[in-house]
Specification:
Elements lengths: L5 H17 L5 H8 L3 H13 L3 E4 L2 E7 L10 E10 L7 E2 L4 E4 L1 H4 L5 E6 L13 E6 L8 E6 L2 E10 L2 E5 L8 E4 L16 E11 L3
Amino acid sequence: MEPLTPSQRKVLAFVQEFATRNRFAPTAREIAERFGIAEKNAFYYLDVLERKGFLRRRPHHPRRIEFTEAAAPYRPPLRVPVLGRVPAGAPREAVEEAGEELLLDPLLAGGEDVYALRVKGDSMTGAGIRDGDYVLVRPQEGAEDGEIVVAVVDGEATVKRLRRAEGGIRLEAENPAFPPLFLPAPAAPAAGGPGAPSSALRVAGKVVGLFRKM
């Protein structure tokens, strides 16, 4: 069975809640009014929900809808906060965008502790991450070799693939137009003195998912 998109899940939840409260289903016009969309788009959502097997409609009876077993285990969407924008290019400080959030299926979100960052730039297109996409990030301080992370370099954030290399860490783009960024490991301190200065790298989280608004 095809999964539902976040917008399709929201429509399904509204139709279920409306039918439970009123003992009959909403019309396409009522769905359109609820979500601020055209009535033809509401018909499209109903067509998709029926085609994907979540409900059945009765011909000539718009208020008579039967929900299938597939609709029974519906889970309310998880509200994922969008904390800011993060470049997929040269490191640059993320810009806070308070108040924005995504509504996602909990199974697709990658966990209840995730947050989202909106990507700016095209250095990660080879990994399917485009400008304007939202990456879902699980907060953690480390990552395995080859994982895509949100890395903070000298206080500035970027989305890159982390590679462990001899003598340090390499942050790789997924676009040949962008060179990798190599961060040498701190030099061992001399006897009685401080170690040599180096770029400060911190992993702010692992990218566990991707969301794209259509």
